[in-house]
């Protein structure tokens, strides 16, 4: 019994459908990873990784925030750090121990912390900038429970 050949349009239809399914899957995967890694413009929520494609190696795997998206008080603290002070709090510039292990492990003395003023707080509040010896800059607004790498 001879095999009946399937008409040519049938093969083309399935080939086209298969290519279309692959294309949609690739587009969907690309869009979802871009949303997860990049966030949306202006998004500054905790743990959001904005501009992950341009993040330096030391920020690999952690949330990021652009310097321009930081609160005004954090940007002022960064300006003071860049200028070398003077700092308003006695503990500014002190060694940050990284006891919470939220930042990459480095030798003692690698990290230094600076207070970011919190309006309405009578004490130092929970916000800090932590810098690393190799130019790393991190921001926390929950007293070291989580950090975001600052993209400058």
UniProtKB/TrEMBL annotation:
Domain of life: Bacteria
Keywords tagged on the record: Hydrolase, Nuclease, Signal
Biased composition regions of type Low complexity, renumbered to the chain: 46-56
Keyword Hydrolase assigned: yes
Keyword Transferase listed: no
Pfam families referenced in this protein's UniProt entry, alphabetically: Ribonuclease (PF00545)
InterPro entries per record: N1-like, Ribonuclease/ribotoxin
Region entry Disordered, spans: 36-56
Signal sequence extent: 1-34
Stated name of the protein: Ribonuclease N
Organism: Streptomyces ortus
């Amino acid at each position: 019994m001879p095999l009946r050949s399937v008409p040519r349009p049938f093969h083309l239809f399935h080939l086209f459908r298969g290519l279309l399914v692959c294309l949609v899957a690739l587009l969907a995967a690309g869009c979802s990873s871009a949303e997860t890694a990049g966030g949306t413009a202006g998004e500054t929520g905790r743990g959001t990784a904005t501009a992950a494609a341009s993040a330096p190696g030391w920020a690999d795997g952690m949330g990021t925030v652009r310097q321009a998206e930081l609160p005004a008080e954090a940007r002022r603290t960064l300006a003071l750090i860049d200028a070398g002070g003077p700092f308003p709090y006695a503990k500014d510039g002190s060694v940050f121990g990284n006891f919470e292990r939220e930042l990459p492990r480095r030798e003692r003395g690698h990290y230094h912390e600076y207070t970011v003023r919190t309006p309405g707080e009578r004490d130092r509040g929970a916000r800090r900038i932590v810098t690393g010896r190799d130019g790393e800059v991190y921001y926390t607004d929950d007293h070291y429970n989580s950090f975001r790498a600052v993209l400058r």
